[in-house]
Amino acid sequence: MRRQRSGKFFVSEVNIRKAAIADAAVIARLSGTLGYPVSAGIMAERLARVLDRDKHGVFVVETTEVVGWIHAAEQEILEMDRFCEIWGLVVADGQRGKGIGRRLTDAVDQWALGRGLDTMLVRSNIVRPESHPFYERVGFARYKTQHAYRKQLATPADF
To answer: Domains in the chain and their CATH numbers?
Structure first.
């Protein structure tokens, strides 16, 4: 069922559930839409490792099929109290703007609160400016800007 609000159609009949290994192919496909291509097999391996860890929450949203996913994790670092951080959020093309992302972030809010966490963080790449107003609409406030660095480590065989 769809309801209209402000000229947009919002999906009211959705099912949000914990992700399963069987979701690997669709999660991989959706990841590719944001520039993170990965095979279904590799995604299944990653999901198996992550889903086996208590401090990770991975949820999918279904309408008639899986149309989005979110991955969050409990973090604990020395300079902050425990908190929850969203590591990935993808909603399928053609499904954005219908309230699905909000439903996914709400699911993680509940998951985090159930773990006794009261702070949620998310990082949003500057190349995705359309996501910044979304995060503000669902309650996040920008608190800093930073640079991200990556270093490729040599494998033991490379020494």
So the answer is: 19-139 (3.40.630.30)
